Amino acid sequence: MSLAVGTINGRLVRDPEVKELGTGTVTSFTVACDQYNGKSKDKTPQYWDCECWGPAQAILKYFHKGDPITVSGSLRQDKVDNEKGKRTFYKLRVEEVGTLPARGSGPSAPEPEADDPF
Q1: DSSP state string for the chain
Q2: Does 32 reside within a domain?
């Protein structure tokens, strides 16, 4: 069996958005993280589209633009063929969410409530 999984540590690019679709509710957001070049120590930003199907009240309640976040889940590949040509997009289907301490702060991140799904 093959499985593509990933964990991303970064910051939210914008506030999470909720969409109602015919197949259910999806919360989508983008996480920015830096990829480091070991030789020159330069960093290049990478942007990862993430989606969480089903209830995601904890994401909406605790995370906003610029907040540090850790997400884990399965990677999904979408291929699009349009007038601009063929393009491939990668998304992370979120299964777990965690927090990272903000820069310069201690371990005072909010604790999720017992009824939060994450």
Answers
A1: ----EEEEEEEESS--EEEEETTEEEEEEEEEEEEE-TTT--EEEEEEEEEEES--HHHHHH--TT-EEEEEEEEEEEEEEETTEEEEEEEEEEEEEE--PPTT--S-PPPPPTTS--
A2: yes
Range of the domain at 64: 5-91
Indicate if the pLDDT at residue 24 is higher than 50: yes
In a domain, 57, yes or no: yes
Which pTM does this prediction carry? 0.74
Does any domain span residue 9? yes
